Amino acid sequence: MKPNPESPLATSVHPSPNHGERRSFPVDLLILHYTGMESAAAALQRLANPVAEVSAHYVVLEDGRVVQMVPEGRRAWHAGQGSWAGVSDINSRSLGIEIVNGGHAGGLPAYPEAQVAAVIDLCRDLTERWSIPAHRVLAHSDIAPERKEDPGEHFPWDRLARAGIGHWVAPTPIRDGRFFSEGDAGQPIEALQAMIALYGYDLPVTGTFDMRTKAAVTAFQRHFRPVRVDGVADASTITTLRDLLAALPGRG
Ligand SMILES: [Zn+2]
What we know:
By secondary structure, the protein is an alpha/beta fold. It has two domains: 12-162, 3-Layer(aba) Sandwich (Lysozyme-like); 187-246, Muramoyl-pentapeptide Carboxypeptidase, domain 1 (Orthogonal Bundle). 31% of the residues lie in helices and 11% in strands. It contains eight helices and eight strands; from the N terminus they run βββαβββαβαβααααα. The strands form two sheets. Strands 1-5-4-7-3-8 form a six-stranded mixed β-sheet. α6 (187-199) crosses α8. The longest helix is centred in the middle third of the chain and has 18 residues, at 113-130. 44% of the residues are buried. InterPro entries: Amidase/PGRP_sf, Amidase_domain, NAMLAA_amidase_2, Peptidoglycan-bd-like, PGBD-like_sf, PGBDSf. Its EC number is 3.5.1.28. It comes from Methylobacterium adhaesivum.
């Protein structure tokens, strides 16, 4: 690829061979990841290793430096199996940012301030140049709830929202009340599943709170109600979901 990065926020190029032609359009999703590795150097090496068959368009280091690995017009291999709002070839339809962080395996280290600021600036640049709507800036865990948990519940989506990035409402505080959890069944579960699916999660409406429903609720909490991530659809979770749905463009 060209020696100069496409985003003005990136300072260097570390090319990866792991990309292909986009197969569907438009490019209207932005997926955020953590690397989940012990160091930035190890992550860059893996993301450029043809044997690993993974990559991302950009990597944001802990000190805020941004490295481009794949040309924006190409299909990077960051999302894997997943789905959002009926789109299943997420790689074709998205840009991917890997954020250097030890992840769950590394004890969920905090994201340093300089790194968060850089992620915000890069997201702003990419969403503006590619016209990606705020509600389509997502976590890897949102598009693959049963497989992925990145960028994790310590990722500051609220900070991004205050900077105008992503879709967000203030989560409803946790209080006592009715809740639904694995094993429950009936009309309220159908309604819950329908709301989760309407927001974009890939979840069939079965009327049974199964493992897949628990995974979707967990992913939702990781992104939108991170103070308690337990896969239980409590009143705070459901109200926050309702408020997000009402705040989608064209609703409310
Ligand atoms: Zn990921």
